Amino acid sequence: MSLEVLRELVFREKFSRVFVVFSNTAATAPVFTVSTLATLGGRMDVVARSLINALWDLESQRFNTLLVALLNGPPNPPLGLYAWRVPAGGKRSEGFFGGLILEALSGKKVDGLLVEKGARLVDVVSLLKGAGYPVYLLDENGLSYANVNLEEPVAFVLGDHIGIPADLLRQVTRLVDGVISIGRTPYLTSHCIAFVHELLDRSSRLRRHA
């Protein structure tokens, strides 16, 4: 395991919240356009929407969150995409974030976005745990979130619309601190991120007013 880019980022920025999204099909090269995120991009639209919900609340940018998107589509998997800041003038739109992803994959310097070759899910989870993060897997069959006391800093692992492959899922399940469910109904990855943010925001507000 190397992940020097991710390691330096995590220890430098000390994020309160980390979301790790495993994408089975998202392209690992700039072989798509902003208008073909879902097709030629290998459902890069899922990644773009995850970025939006990770880095924005309803009105403004979040500054305490890292999104780690693990891209496993052709032609050069695996690839890690790390996003933690929205460039000046950023818009809360799929097209805007899709454009940022495209620039990063093209080798251009993008403020708040980095890429790293060879980023594998098991290694990312191990790195986060080594950095002091409790790591939870989000899965419909896990323990209800209502029965888990979530405290920051904290990290979460999510699959895409396909899900994490069975063999890899077994490995990750052995590594994480727990498997949490936000409901028995499968939700969009981006919606799961928004829901978890709301849970943590609510908990933070309660602590401030206690």
TrEMBL record:
Segment forming the signal sequence: none
Keyword set includes Methyltransferase: yes
Any one GO MF annotation of this record: tRNA methyltransferase activity
Keyword tRNA-binding: no
Keywords: Cytoplasm, Methyltransferase, S-adenosyl-L-methionine, Transferase
SUPFAM superfamilies per record: alpha/beta knot (SSF75217)
GO biological process: tRNA methylation
Name of the protein: tRNA (pseudouridine(54)-N(1))-methyltransferase
The organism of origin for this protein: Thermofilum pendens (strain DSM 2475 / Hrk 5)
